[in-house]
Design a protein that fits this description.
There is one protein chain. It is built from 7 helices and 11 strands. It has helices at residues 11-14, 20-33, 50-57, 69-81, 119-132, 146-153, 209-218, and strands at residues 40-44, 61-66, 87-91, 103-108, 133-144, 157-161, 165-174, 179-189, 195-205, 221-228, 241-248. Helix 2 (20-33) crosses helix 3.
Length: 251
């Protein structure tokens, strides 16, 4: 039950309620705030490339990185459908990141960083980001909060039924480990009009902001700011998603 194998087939269908355009405008505003108006930008956990394409449309030279071959296959198909070749997609685990060139910014959205379950691995990712970013580069990423997992998602079941496919999404939050388990059951229609059942298991970890700051520091990164998502307001106990901005520590 590898994460994002079967789900990749219907990911865009069930994510059609996500306001990607609005999210991209916020992300682009943050990039410009830190003087990243052009150049190479890398998206970690790019999935099917929706945000990657929006950033490319804004004039950035985009590289999308994901560890799901199925998701990247769809990203490539979308690129062909739109008759474009302006994005480079790399099949990589962000914990083993290998990049090149002068990277102006690295971004990660849609809680991709929450999939890093061990603090030592998150620190490793931060260290790799530092290694590949330009000296004046910026790192922008989001995280679902403890409040969202514990108080809103934990012990919650979500389901949706559509003609092409249906899903049942069960959540369990383990507070001792600060880990949320997603049990995902999919029913996907095939050409014969029969529905095939698939099951996937996903895990995401909740990190407190202070822990993230410490891991950034240990990795040689400088914490710059943390915002309640899509605002410039500080993160509060009621924040569901936070955006964090960091950069290589200046000597």
């Amino acid at each position: 039950m590898e994460a994002y194998s079967s789900f990749a087939q219907v990911y865009d269908l069930f994510m059609d309620n996500v306001p990607y355009e609005e999210w991209s405008r916020y992300l682009i505003s943050l990039l410009k705030e830190y003087q990243v108006t052009d150049g190479t930008v890398v998206e970690l956990g790019c999935g099917t490339g929706k945000m990657t394409r929006l950033l490319a449309d804004a004039g950035y030279d985009m590289v999308g990185v994901d560890n799901s071959a199925e998701m990247l296959e769809i990203a490539g198909e979308r690129q062909e459908e739109e008759e474009r070749n302006d994005i480079l997609y790399l099949l990589q685990d962000m914990r083993e990141l290998e990049l090149f060139g002068n990277i102006r910014a690295i971004v990660s959205v849609c809680d991709s960083m929450n999939y890093i379950l061990k603090p030592e691995d998150l620190k490793k990712v931060f260290g790799l980001v530092k290694e590949y970013l330009a000296e004046d580069g910026v790192f922008i990423f989001d995280l679902n909060t403890v409040h969202k997992y514990r108080d809103l998602m934990g012990e919650c079941t979500i389901s949706e039924n559509r003609e092409e496919s249906s899903f049942i999404w069960e959540n369990y939050f383990y507070e001792d480990e600060m880990v949320n388990e997603y049990d995902l059951t999919l029913f996907i229609r095939e050409e014969s009009d029969l529905y095939r059942k698939y099951e996937e298991l996903h895990y995401q970890k909740a990190y407190e902001l202070e822990q993230v700051k410490e891991l950034l520091l240990q990795a040689g990164m400088e914490f710059v700011a943390a915002y309640d998502a899509f605002t410039h307001d500080p993160v509060t106990a009621e924040s569901e998603r936070m955006y964090i901005i960091a950069r290589p520590k200046r000597i």
